[in-house]
Amino acid sequence: MNAIYLDHAATTPIHPAVVERMTEILTSHYGNPSSIHSYGRKARQLLDQSRRVCADSIGANEKEIIFTSGGTEADNLAILGTAFANKEKGRHIITTKIEHHATLHTAQYLERNGYEVTYLDVTENGTIDLEELKRNLSDQTILVSIMMVNNETGVIQPMKQIGEILSNHGAYFHTDAVQGYGLLEIDVNELQVDLLSVSSHKINGPKGLGFLYAREDVAIQSLQFGGEQERKRRAGTENVAGIVGFETAIQLADSERAEKINLYQKFRAIFIDTLKEHHIDFTVNGDKAERVPNIINLSFPNMNVEKLLTNFDLSGVAASSGSACTAGSVEPSHVLTAMYEADHPCTTNSIRFSFGLANNEENVKEAAERVAAIIQRLSK
Ligand SMILES: Cc1ncc(COP(=O)(O)O)c(C=O)c1O
Beta strand pairing status for 295-299 and 283-284? Predict the structure, then answer.
């Protein structure tokens, strides 16, 4: 039985054009961008060009882009880097209960080290309450970190309104844009964000690569010691081939954005309609309107997430619960727990399906047929 990949929110297949470009760089341009000879200068040129593309993609300038090893490092650098550099101004940070662990665990580390962190609740729709954000801001708040798109539900937070609220406050605004970047048009000035994290492998680029946008006037402390790369904000020789591959992925995402949005909306409709045709009992988790089209999170009443995922996998369908799997058992989702309540059935019977490059109308339909057959069998 052919396998069907519906887990693009976990990672995406690398685009063939990215592989081609990376292979060219790996084989022909291996210089160190910090070297002053011709090999180094060529690598520097490539790096500068990629940095420009990254900056242009979010309306920033090149000096504001710091290449990292991915979204996790970008989140760590944004949160720890600003917390350490601004500790004299205050030690209070605001984030949400539904962040990726790259943010949550970093915030928890700060709590263990003398900072105070407020974790905002979300409604059943998966969005924060702006009034709760306002209420929690104080003169001690140095950073507000709120993700753009949730990786489990695909729900988009009200970025613009958050930026407006914070424009009258001294706290920096960081957003983890890992799941929004590529599909949503992002302008850091319009959104009034000071720091923004991006990951390459979510947009058909190579793994182990990302960038942090940090507005020029943001005080940030480097977390690594070594050379003076990335304007002394991130030591270590840059992954030039990976970065150039990432640049290609960004250009493709930019040029194909509208087409992809349409396509993923179609995939989503095919998937949901097929389940309905088979009279499958399910509900959609998260806001119906404010969402990216490539992620759907469905709750199947009276089902169990481990059983579902095992059966989907046996039938060749790769999906995810979106939350961590420890010692063979899937923990209740912290995102769905925040949206509903602890022990709510949705936290243990929900599956995330996410579409992308590995899909077409036929395999999405086929995957939904297999999912429907499994649910029907398990319901008996
Ligand atoms: C919202 C979000 N933030 C951060 C990350 C981490 O990114 P990376 O895998 O590049 O470290 C992910 C990856 O799943 C994510 O979905």
Answer: antiparallel
pLDDT digits (tens, 9 = 90+) for 354-364: 999 999 999 99
Q: How many domains does the chain have?
A: 2
Ligand 1, closest atom to CA 209? Answer: 10
Query: How far is 113 from 102, CA to CA, in rounded Å?
Result: 17
Longest dimension (CA), the chain: 71
Phi-psi region of 85 (alpha: psi -120 to 50; beta: other; left: phi over 0): alpha
How far, in Å, from the CA of 17 to the mean position of ligand 1? Answer: 23
Pocket of ligand 1 (CB under 6 A): 70-72, 75, 100, 102, 147, 151, 176, 178-179, 199, 201, 210
Same domain, 286 and 236: no
Report which of residues 380 and 14 the model is more confident about. Answer: 14
Q: Residue 247 in contact with residue 239, Cβ under 8 Å?
A: no
What is the average per-residue pLDDT within 355-374? 98
Strand, helix or coil at 353? strand
Are 243 and 283 in a shared domain?
no
Q: Does residue 205 contact residue 68 with C-beta atoms inside 8 Å?
A: no
State in Å: Cα 70 to ligand 1 middle.
Answer: 7
Q: Which CATH number goes with the domain that contains 214?
A: 3.40.640.10
Q: Among residues of the chain, what percentage have pLDDT more than 70?
A: 98
C-alpha of residue 103 to centroid of ligand 1, in Å:
9
CA dihedral 80, 291, 9, 317 (to 10 degrees): 150
Residue nearest to atom 7 of ligand 1 (CA): 71
* Of 24, 7, 15, nearest in space to 254 by CA: 15
Domain interval for residue 308: 4-12+257-379
11 alpha carbon – ligand 1 mean position (Å): 9
Among residues 223, 255, 287, the one where a domain terminates is 255
Q: Whose CA is nearest to atom 16 of ligand 1?
A: 151
Q: What value does the mean pLDDT take over residues 338-348?
A: 92
pLDDT in tens, 247-266: 999 999 999 999 999 999 99
The predicted model gives 105-112 an average pLDDT of 98
- Catalytic residue numbers read 325
